[in-house]
Specification:
This is Tetratricopeptide repeat protein. The protein has helices spanning 103-113, 121-128, 139-148, 161-169, 218-226, 241-248, 254-272, 275-287, 291-303, 326-329, 332-339, 343-356, 361-373, 377-390, 395-405, and strands at residues 34-36, 87-89, 152-156, 174-182, 186-198, 203-208, 212-217, 232-236. The chain is α+β, with helices and mostly antiparallel strands. The radius of gyration is 24 Å and the shape is globular.
Length: 413
């Protein structure tokens, strides 16, 4: 049976080649970066957690007696964590090809199928994308939908290969957001569901709503993944939540994980100094409440030289070092500039987003925040109302609108 027409989720595409996926140049590129495959089911038991041991303290001696030296108590060896298997594959996850702009609904549906759900994009998309022309379903929206289905959710930035392999070996598929390049429509964001890995071949296995089952070379995958701060999303039934937290380890501690990610982004920005590195540094600072430091990093990202490998169809009117669709998916610069007292910059960049994606509810929201900061409340009100028309459940926009209409209330974050 011929494959149905496939359409990317991140943009209104026309004539996109089904296998026209670009790549980022780098020393880790493998010749089979994206190789369609048929998934081979197999299951791997989760690694057991090491048990901590403790040496008991010596008993206190009586005051009037000089006791003989107490015999040394040998410390018991602490077992090392078991090594991960060389390969793992999570079986019985349903693959689905997407319709127009539906990679988000499809990918969360595939992840839920791991735990028995039969929901598909026709059930999910009307909830996540009530208005046609919505070019982005954010990770927060995917997480909220999974929670509405009774799932436990962990969403964070700053993942790495070891974490992904640990989760996959234990049977937890992982949603990742990556950059995706087609020769005719350029670069855009795209969700994929990781379902396995093979250390011998140095590849992840993934279900892609556009291309089908894939193998992704470790090095090139990381280059595509870093464009979104190595964001990962795991959904699981509540009964599996304790296992998931054990696998996450210190990453389950949100403040500690954010600090670790800040250190990683600082090191990468110092080492690579490109636009993506500064974008991630800005987001890491913003996540920890440093709006002014974040704004400086975002300024460096926009001032960097653009990478043509990420942005091969760059429009002439776009300025800055980031790919022109970046702010369709990443709102950190818009937020940082508002918080740092630079609403005019947010207004300028949100206008650029709306020029290419008029139905972008987050851009309307940040336009409203910028207008409010510039003392233009009637225009801000209209922007918030448009954001709510596009997504009636957009609670942040609703709170901002109510705050604007009742100035005595606490302003939205």
């Amino acid at each position: 049976m011929p494959r149905p027409a496939l359409l990317l989720c991140a943009a209104l595409l026309t004539g996109a080649a089904a296998y026209g996926v670009g790549w980022l140049p780098g020393p880790d590129r493998a010749p089979d970066v994206l190789t369609p495959l048929a998934p081979a089911p197999s299951s791997v038991a989760p690694p057991s957690a090491p048990e901590a041991t403790e040496t008991p303290p010596p008993l206190p001696a009586a005051e009037a007696i000089s006791p003989a030296p107490a015999p040394a108590v040998p410390a018991l060896p602490v077992p090392k964590p078991q090594p991960l298997p060389a390969q793992a594959q999570i079986p019985e996850i349903r693959h689905e090809y997407q319709r127009l702009n539906n990679c988000g609904p499809v990918t969360i549906g595939m992840a839920l199928s791991r735990w028995g759900s039969a929901l598909n994009q026709y059930d999910i998309a009307p909830r996540l994308k009530p208005v046609r022309g919505d070019v982005n379903v954010s990770p927060d929206e995917l997480a909220a939908y999974a929670r509405s289905q009774g799932m436990d959710v962990h969403l964070a930035r700053g993942g790495d290969r070891t974490l992904l392999r640990t989760l996959l070996a234990a049977g937890f598929p992982v949603i990742v957001e990556t950059w995706f390049v087609t020769p005719d429509s350029g670069g855009m964001g795209h969700y994929r569901l990781l379902t396995g890995y093979d250390d011998r071949a140095m590849t992840f296995r993934a279900l892609d709503s556009y291309l089908g089952p894939l193998k992704l070379a470790y090095g090139t995958f990381d280059e595509l993944w870093r464009s979104f701060g190595r964001l990962y999303l795991v959904v699981a039934p509540p009964a599996k939540a304790p296992v998931l937290r054990r696998l996450l380890g210190t990453r389950a501690d949100r403040p500690a994980a954010k600090q670790a990610w800040l250190r990683a982004t600082e090191a990468e920005a110092a080492h690579r100094g490109d636009a993506v590195a500064f974008l991630n540094l800005g987001q890491a600072r913003l996540d920890l409440g440093d709006a002014r430091g974040a704004a400086r990093a975002f300024d460096q990202a926009f001032a960097a030289n653009p990478d043509p490998g990420l942005d091969p169809t760059r429009p002439g009117w776009v300025q800055g070092g980031l790919p022109w669709r970046t702010l369709w998916y990443t709102f950190g610069p818009l937020e940082a500039w508002v918080r740092a007292g630079r609403p005019a910059d947010t207004l300028r960049l949100s206008a650029a987003v709306l020029r290419s994606a008029p139905a972008h509810e987050e851009a309307h929201y940040w336009r409203g925040r910028a207008l409010a900061g510039l003392g233009r409340p009637s225009e801000a009100r209209a922007a918030y109302q448009e954001a709510l028309r596009l997504r009636p459940g957009f609670l942040t926009a609703r709170l901002a609108l109510s705050t604007l209409e009742a100035p005595g209330k606490v302003r939205s974050p």
